[in-house]
Amino acid sequence: MTEAFLELRDVTKSFTLPAREVVALSTTSLQIEQGALVCLLGPSGCGKSTLLRLVAGFEQPSGGNIIFHGKPISSPGPERGMIFQDYALFPWLTVRQNVAFGPRARGMGRRSAGDLADRYLDMVGLNEFAEVWPHQLSGGMRQRVAIARVLANDAKLVLMDEPFGALDAMTRERLQQELLTICAQTGLTVLFVTHSIEEAVLLGDRVIVMSAGPGRVVSDLAVSLPHPRDPTDASFNDIRRGLSEALHGGHSAAPVANGEPQQ
Amino acid sequence: MTFLGRAVVALGLPVVCLLLWQIAVSGQRYSLIPPPTEVAMQWWDMLVGGVWDDAYSATMLEHAWASMYRVFGGFGLAAAAGIPLGLLLGRVDLVRRIVDPTLQILRPIPVTAWLPLALILFGIGPKSAFFLVFLGAFWPILLNTVFGVRNADPRLTEAAAMLGVGKTAMFRKVVLPAALPSIFTGLRLSLGISWVVIVIGEMTGVRTGLGAVIMEARQLSRTAVVLSGMVTIGALGFFSDYALLLIGRRLLRWKDGND
């Protein structure tokens, strides 16, 4: 690895409430390599979503730098596509128009943007639904549209904020497999926030465990199991147990050095 | 339900009311309120003439036209002023801080209270009616537009920003469409209010208009004419709302559970 694809250097984030200052993310340094699917695992309040929003450029760090492709991040941009848990599709646009939205916003003609959208809708298996409104789709289908939307917009890094959290178990499993397939096909880099240990082990090439109060990284683990991974497999369970211990270790008031990332 | 089925269900109640009205007044030797049959005859006479052939015969279209002109004129003006101002107030904090307190003081003043002032400012005539309709229609459009802009889902703005929409295009590409349903609610409310206000507006001494007819017939104790005017206002209000509803459905056909 010559130059990190994404690098967080001593990043902190605190919010000022009327009464006090809340540290959402204490000093964190991380390097994310290109082509990896990295899971951020932790309970609510551990700063995993904050970290994602910082990388997306929705929030500015209170301290430190976030370097993407050698440049500091200062605002949201199409090279960093975000997948929200609640989809955030534009309800007034059809499925095709939603996927074509990014390319259109960046100046592509209607015709070419539409063709591009169709290609990515094909990829997520929704080409038949190009003309319908988002509200007519199921949750799983909406999330597929959201994925097609960032892919069509040339995202190099996809940020997923508990993307399958609102879906039923079967749909979630299907989308998890589809995400792995898409990653294998495109070599996409993914930062995937989840609070499910199983999901993290199932998907991640690497799992970063975070803990709350204040939000910090407590463990960083490479997962080298081959795909497809079997949650009933013994080695899968070993990893799961290890992550579970890391999570609970983080919960106890044990004096884990504040924000010391274990790289 | 089929269209016919819905129509039958919707018409049931008015038909029953008309029957009760007919029964209540027809048994008496003398009634201040004419039966619906007489009102229907009067209405027909006002529309095309040939029944009574008096001063009111075949004048309905002229009055209806005058009222519609004022309603849609005042309403259109209110929309032309209220939507842009609402967009500005909802979007730019500084403008809201400057303008909003003044608006909040003006807002509780009822249209009726403006009537004397309107007569001084615009004189006795259609201009005053126009102005009063404008005032009545302005507030719901303004408030709903502001509400729509301020309640545009921040998630959608974030989604657009991450897809490459800049600050200047954000308003047109996200905030405006997100506010559209709310703007339309404001328009529908305002159009309804415009029809309410028109009767007050036409008390300002104008010679034409459904409100003027009602006021004049009242002084002449022509209750059937009063009721005919009321029926016409009701019908025009209904159809204009329906037209707006159809336009809204077309523009907002992306919405879930469109009524």
UniProtKB/TrEMBL annotation, chain A:
InterPro entries: AAA+_ATPase, ABC_transporter-like_ATP-bd, ABC_transporter-like_CS, ABC_transporter_ATP-bind, P-loop_NTPase
Alphabetical list of Pfam families matching this protein: ABC_tran
Alphabetically ordered keywords of this record: ATP-binding, Nucleotide-binding, Transport
UniProt-recorded Gene Ontology molecular function terms: ATP binding; ATP hydrolysis activity
The ABC transporter domain, residue ranges: 6-237
Family to which this protein belongs: Belongs to the ABC transporter superfamily.
Name of protein: ABC transporter ATP-binding protein
Lineage: Bacteria, Pseudomonadati, Pseudomonadota, Alphaproteobacteria, Rhodospirillales
UniProtKB/TrEMBL annotation, chain B:
GO biological process, one term: alkanesulfonate transmembrane transport
SUPFAM superfamilies xref list: MetI-like
Domain ABC transmembrane type-1 per the UniProt entry, residue ranges: 64-248
Listed transmembrane segments: 71-92, 104-124, 130-153, 220-245
InterPro entries linked to this entry: MetI-like, MetI-like_sf
Entry's localization field: Cell membrane
UniProt entry keywords in alphabetical sequence: Cell membrane, Membrane, Transmembrane, Transmembrane helix, Transport
GO cellular component: plasma membrane
Job of this protein: Probably part of an ABC transporter complex. Probably responsible for the translocation of the substrate across the membrane.
Broad class of where this protein is predominantly found: membrane
Protein name: ABC transporter permease
Family that this chain belongs to: Belongs to the binding-protein-dependent transport system permease family.
Protein topology in the membrane: Multi-pass membrane protein
Pfam families: BPD_transp_1 (PF00528)
